[in-house]
Design a protein that fits this description.
Elements: E1 10-19, E2 24-34, E3 39-50, H1 52-66, E4 72-77, H2 80-95, E5 99-102, E6 105-108, H3 112-124, E7 126-131, H4 139-156
Parallel strand pairs: 1-4, 4-7
Antiparallel strand pairs: 1-2, 2-3, 5-6
Helix pairs in contact: 1-3
Length: 160
């Protein structure tokens, strides 16, 4: 994930997920910022029955899916599950057939479908992760939290 040419466009992807109950209705929110142009876009969505970790992952997935060309991406998240999963655990999981060690045995990883999508998206870009403390006043993290909570609330109420 490092060693990429610096001439690639640089973007920042701020992400957060929320869940009302775990599992329960959940939402994700992200902000995609192009510092060179000052351009910034917000995205969010939700699911009726999900988990907080799934929504944290979905925020990164959706943000990376929007990018149309290879970029250097700094993902700013408050989820150590996502940051460590993407930057530390993923290679081992892939080597072990999408399984992790539990004592002396290998067991299937949780959320394998989302991890596989994330793996494909991470391969398209040069991605680094910055872990921030949630609910600690980080402006973009707070905004993403509001987007995610609103999307979770909308997912809780059936359309109509």
């Amino acid at each position: 994930m490092t060693g990429e040419p610096t001439q690639l466009p640089f973007v920042q992807l701020f992400t957060d997920g929320a869940c009302s109950g775990n599992p329960g209705p959940g939402g994700w929110g992200c902000i995609l910022r192009h510092p060179a142009t000052g351009s910034e876009k917000e995205f969010s969505g939700g699911e009726a029955l999900t988990t907080n970790n799934q929504m944290e992952m979905q925020a990164v997935i959706e943000g990376l899916k929007v990018l149309t060309r290879k970029s250097r991406v700094e993902v700013v998240t408050d989820s150590s599950y996502v940051a460590r999963g993407c930057s530390e655990w993923l290679p081992g999981w892939k080597r072990n057939g999408w399984k992790r060690r539990d004592g002396r045995q290998l067991v299937p990883i949780s959320n394998v479908d989302r991890w596989q999508v994330l793996d494909q998206l991470l391969a398209r870009h040069s991605v680094s992760f910055t872990l921030v403390r949630g609910h600690a006043g980080h402006p973009e993290n707070e905004r993403c939290d509001k987007l995610a909570v609103a999307a979770a609330s909308a997912a809780k109420s059936p359309p109509g």
